[in-house]
Amino acid sequence: MTMSRSRRLSGIAAAILIAIFSSNDALLAQGTDASIRGVVADSAGAAVAGAIVEVRNTTTGFVSVVRSSDRGRYLATQLPLGGPYRITARAVGFRTSAREGITLNIGSVVTADFRLVVGTVQLTEVTVSAEPARVVERNGAVTRIGESQVKELPNQNRRFQDLIKLSPLAGSGTSLGGARPMSTDVRIDGVGAQMNNTGQTFAGPLTMTMEAIREFEIATNEYDVTKGRQGGGLINAVTKSGTNRWSGSAFSYYRDKSLTTDDYRGVAAQNFTVRQQGFSLGGPIIKDKLTVFGVYDRSDQSLPLEIMNVRNSADEIELGIARDSLNRLTSILTNKYGLDTTQQQTGVFSRKPLSQAFVGRVDWQLAANHRLTLRNNTTLYSDPEEIGPDQTLHFAESRGGAEVNSTGTFASLRSTFGGGVVNEFKLQALQFTRERIARNELPRGFVRIASRLPDNSSRTVNVQFGGNRLAPEKYKERQYQLANTLFWNRGNQTVTIGTDNIVTQIQRRLPVEQRGLFEFDNLAQLDALTAARYSRQVPLRDGGTTADFTVADLSTFVQSEWQLGRGLTASAGLRLDGVQFLTAAAYNPLVDQRLGVRTDEKPSNWIVSPRAQAVWYASNCSGTTCNIGLSAP
Questions:
Q1: What is the 3-state secondary structure (H, E, C) of 151-201?
Q2: Which whole-number Å values give the CA distances from 305 to 311, 347, 350, 353, 438, in the listed order?
Q3: What CA–CA distance (Å, rounded) separates 385 from 349?
Q4: 134-170 in b/e burial notation, b at 16+ Cβ within 10 A?
Q5: What is the C-alpha separation between 262 and 480, in angstroms, rounded?
Q6: I need a surface site. Which of 97, 295, 559, 584 has the fewest CB within 10 A?
Q7: What is the pLDDT of residues 454-505, one digit of tens each?
Q8: Which among 501, 463, 506, 467 has a CA at the least distance from the CA of 484?
């Protein structure tokens, strides 16, 4: 794409964003994609326009009030999960009617139709205590992990993301459908939960504590224009909230060597324990108005780590190094290279990773149609043995530790307005830091060692000593996300207009191999202080190996959905996604001279994606749906 075309698309996107955010009808939800819709009609089946429909979660006090359109249709979308919900429909000249016992899951579309009876005087409300006739879960290839499954399914590491494996499309890590993990869009409460540069989801093993997750889903083949930034699929999680009743939990999980197996050599695990413990508490500050929920989760582990643990002949054969060769190597490094033998360098070590997670959430019903949600998720992780060296055989001094921390602060305001307008607005600030800590400031050293092993075979292996290639490193990423989606219900049509934007600032200092590497072909060269090779990487620009840049990930979209009757709905929309670097790289005159390419440009890429979908709900076949979709980048 030419730069001039990129600038034109950038201008179009900016104009759309300004138009959207200049609206005073600001509203915010939590990415639940749960909605209740239906038709309000009289006893003869004629549409009742302007009927007031109140949707109330009797557990939390959440309320949303909408009016039916001129065709009697109403829509309440992006509703908090759970229930039971009570839906009340009333209109002048009719008796009030209500439905109860409705529970919403992530992605649920509940249809609750009303037939109002004419009444000249105020009569007793008619209540239907049953599920509505039709509940449709998310369209597309979806695996939903519900609230009961999150609570009850065995989960060895107590991480909600481990349950992704229940999807038949799941691969390694967060990979879906065979795509790279970074191609999976991970969202918590409707906002991003991935680092832009690394694809990592928050920090350490806990990420977002499982105790704070209500439910989540793994979805692919989504044709809704509100979904983007995904090559393989979407992982969408929703956190718990407080209710009108104080409740809490305390949990503790323990595992030791008696609950694990021997290793592949038949050796029992040593120094192995896993402890995870914490608590949650939630309840009302003001009933039906203000609720809070909080979780603390801590995981302490002690894991065995073997470093050149040569105890017998079998170990010599497995590692490929004879005990006398290892002893000679240790002696040379101690006497001539300053190897610190006051610290353990080989044998069995104990890794002690520590992970903590703090989650706090406040839900405030500001008014009948406005609900504010504030949430913070902070994770802390440390492991003194996290960073391994380049060679399998090495001394402990060549390892490094890591500290990984993240904090995400999220604000959400959900509102409904007259004229069938529902709008959601989301704002998040997310910071991720990672520091790799070296044990020393030494250059690295590799030495090739040839050994005659107890089984009379010969092996040659590389052994590393000295420093670490990847440590020290400091990485910091800040993300600022702003999203707004407006839903307009008019007649039998629902129009969706919105935008979702992330600005990412990245600072990274990675002095890889700047201390140099000495390579020795044998122990004799090492003993003689004569290296066969020496290499070192040095920065060629000002600022050394520090990268500091900003990138914007922009999107805007529009969609229309039609209720065509007899269980058939159709939608068509358009989504525009763009990535724009806001910081230019340094100018390299040599590249310009030899290749005619300037390195100080600000790259950008834009994708236009038209989408269309038709869904038929076969009302005479309970639970049966037929979904046909089309999307083109």
A1: HHCCCCCCCHHHHHHHCCCECCCCCECCCCHHHEEEEECCEECCCCCCCCC
A2: 15, 8, 6, 12, 18
A3: 9
A4: bbbebbbbbbbbbbeebeeeeeeebbbbebbeebebb
A5: 47
A6: 584
A7: 999 999 999 999 999 888 889 999 999 999 999 998 888 899 999 999 999 9
A8: 501
